[in-house]
Amino acid sequence: MKKESMEEKYIPPEKLERKILTSLKSKGEIKEMSKINLTKTVSLSFAVILLIAVSFIIGKKSATMTNAESKNLYAMFLYNNNVSGEDEEQKINEYHEWLVNLKTQGKMAKGDKLEDNGMFVNKTADQIAINNVEFNNSEFISGYFIIEAADYDEMLAIAKECPHVKYGGKVQIRKIFDLSTVIKN
Fold first, then answer.
1. Which residue(s) pair with 173 in the sheet?
2. What pLDDT sits at residue 52?
3. Tally of domains in the chain
4. Does one domain contain both 55 and 141?
5. Cα–Cα distance for residue pair 117/131, rounded to 1 Å
6. Helix (H, G, I), strand (E, B) or coil at 139
7. What is the model's pLDDT at position 142?
């Protein structure tokens, strides 16, 4: 015959259980959460979660709006008209100083020199035409910069200071249209 332990066999009567709980509560050993405190806790937790969610959504929207609204980006295309005879090292140093100045002001976004070869691609009648371009004797785009400026006046002032203009080259400035204002994700 198997002996049963006291734990398995003994179930305290309800009256005794209440006495034990009352005694433990009076000694501060256990605390009973009232329905009011439980409701406050649940409500507060919900409010915090809702606040975090709303803050995230508002923050994401305002960051997107801030980027689109605050950045006036301009493309500045550099046209090469075969200016030569100047000291190349001098030119490179001037471009470098000009770029460092723009970067220091937070205006420079990107810029590169383009290779001296390329292709035109266009459609003629019912076919696509691809033609190699030789830039030997014609005016062509030799590089570009993407620059942030408050408006066309500021961009024009930046363009006038570009060493490319000083050495007889020509630049074209164009405001970049922000496609994110019309393209929905």
1. 76
2. 73
3. 2
4. no
5. 11
6. coil
7. 83
Q: In this structure, are residues 110 and 146 in contact, taking their beta carbons and an 8 Å threshold?
A: yes
Structure tokens, 66: 């801030």
CB hemisphere CA count around 135 (13 angstroms)? 15
Which ranges in the chain belong to alpha helices (H)? 6-9, 14-26, 35-70, 88-104, 152-160, 163-166
Please name every residue paired with 121 in a beta bridge, in sequence order, or none if there are none: 130
Domain co-membership, 152 together with 136? yes
Q: Which domain holds residue 117?
A: 71-181
Q: Residue with structure tokens 């605390």?
A: 31
| pLDDT at 125 (0 to 100) | 81
Cα 36 to chain centroid distance, Å, stands at 45
Q: What is the mean pLDDT of each run of 10 residues along the chain (185 residues)?
A: 56 71 72 55 60 64 46 88 67 87 88 82 81 69 90 94 87 88 72
Do strands 170-175 and 73-80 pair parallel, antiparallel, or not at all (unpaired)? antiparallel
CA distance 8 to 39: 36
